[in-house]
Design brief:
By secondary structure, the chain is α/β, with parallel strands linked by helices. The chain is about 40% helix and about 15% strand. The strands form 2 sheets. Strands 4-5-7-6 form a 4-stranded antiparallel sheet. Strand 4 and strand 5 form a beta hairpin. The protein binds iron/sulfur cluster. Iron/sulfur cluster (SF4) binds next to helix 9.
Length: about 240
């Protein structure tokens, strides 16, 4: 298991060239000699589509997309089968994001990898995920197969998340996008957690149902319940 870190300026040693970074990752995990290390580095470069000439560069000399590829190569170096990818497309241009996503999908297919993919970008979540887990204020509120969650979310929070994505996409398509209408509603105070369901202060279902006590009672905080077909939701009034 290995990790693809979000902030590669912090995760890659600025005083090591790319060859040294990859070499270290290989040598720490495999007892191999110089020629074998070079062969392994060439293989990694090919897997992540990075030019051999970049090996003598230092991290600050690479573009955001290239640094991302180095981060992926370093995660692959020990022979990991399971990668935790923390916002692997953050701070990248849309075209570079697409390249990174395609690379991750190709690697998954060719090497049989599994990912735990952490993202705030629902478009990318929808694109790469087989199963989705939605968290709100540190708690899982819904989990299930990606297409089911996208098409028929049962938790009000997930529903709002995906509706705002659809709204954003249709505005972009019609050229009327002017930022997210829902930008302010999700802000919560982590220092002062609410009683019962954490989503209650923001929940339209809670308001529509006349603020039922069960939603804000400590002893009845909603737990994940099985909705069938591997779909689980933590809500007293699932949609
Ligand atoms: S438990 Fe109540 S407040 Fe929480 S999401 Fe469900 S309806 Fe809304």
């Amino acid at each position: 298991m290995q990790m693809i870190f979000q902030d590669l300026d912090a995760a890659l040693n600025p005083k090591m060239c790319i060859r040294a970074i990859l070499k270290e990752a290989i040598r720490v995990h495999h007892n191999v000699d110089g020629a074998e290390v070079d062969r392994k580095i060439s293989e990694l470069l090919e897997q992540v589509n990075l030019k051999e000439s970049k090996l003598t560069n230092y991290p600050h000399e690479l573009s955001g997309g290239e640094k991302r590829r180095v981060g992926i190569a370093r995660a692959l170096a020990p022979g990991a089968r399971f990668l935790v990818a923390d916002e692997p497309t953050s701070a990248l241009d849309v075209s570079i994001q697409a390249q990174v996503i395609n690379l991750l999908k190709d690697l998954q297919k060719n090497l049989g990898l599994s990912y735990l993919f952490i993202s705030h970008d629902l478009r990318i979540v929808e694109l790469v995920s087989h199963k989705v887990v939605v968290m709100y204020m540190g708690k899982i509120v819904e989990m299930g197969l990606a297409n089911r969650i996208a098409e028929a979310p049962r938790h009000p929070y997930t529903h709002i998340l995906w509706s705002s994505l659809v709204e954003k996409e249709s505005k972009e398509a019609s050229g009327t996008s002017s930022g997210s209408k829902s930008a302010g509603w999700g802000i919560c105070d982590f220092e002062r957690p609410y009683r019962g369901c954490r989503f209650a202060p923001q929940c339209p279902v809670y308001r529509r149902r006349g603020r039922p006590e069960i939603c804000i009672n400590h002893s009845t905080e909603p737990q994940l319940q099985d909705m069938g077909e591997a779909h689980k939701v933590a809500c007293h009034f699932p949609l």
